[in-house]
Amino acid sequence: MTKAKIVQLKPAGTVHAGDAKGGNLFQGVAIEAPDCPEWLCESAREYWGFITAELEQAGLVSKLDQGALSALCTTYARMREAELAVAEHGEYQTFANGVVQLSPYAAAFNRHTVMYLKLAREYGLTLRSRQNIKVDNPNQGELDL
């Protein structure tokens, strides 16, 4: 039976980079963009390429982020698709009886925007969330998962 390796973790919200081997770490996990899932739609894949490159350069992503990034990119793609539909069909729809209502496309855009912003905060993709990221460079060692 192998002995568990004890690693002292730093509080969330602190960026950690560098170890004795010359690799980069974030929260004890190697900084490396995860592979893009094959099932993502084209628009989500395009955003994946952009956002993972930026997050990797900033030292804020690891392979463990694949699921959360998939949700972020899919939500972005759906938000974009809804906005294109709003641009084409309008934000409101008028029924034969004269009632004006928010279009389903606008409602979808609003819903996806709210979800995107919630996910974006997790990665420091909003101005406010970036203010909460403290940059630090301690040698904390690699997390053995």
Describe this entry's structure for a reader.
The chain has 145 residues and is mostly helical. It has a domain of 96 residues. Helices cover 45% and strands 10% of the residues. The chain has four helices and six strands, in the order βββααββααβ. The strands form three sheets. The protein has a two-stranded parallel ribbon with strand order 1-6. α1 packs across α2. The protein is elongated. About 13% of the residues have low confidence.
SSE layout and pairings?
Blueprint: E1 14-15, E2 25-26, E3 29-30, H1 42-58, H2 66-89, E4 92-94, E5 100-102, H3 104-122, H4 127-131, E6 134-135
Parallel strand pairs: 1-6
Antiparallel strand pairs: 2-3, 4-5
Note the main attributes of this structure.
single chain; 145 residues; mainly alpha; two-stranded parallel sheet; two-stranded antiparallel sheet; 4 helices; 6 strands; 10% strand
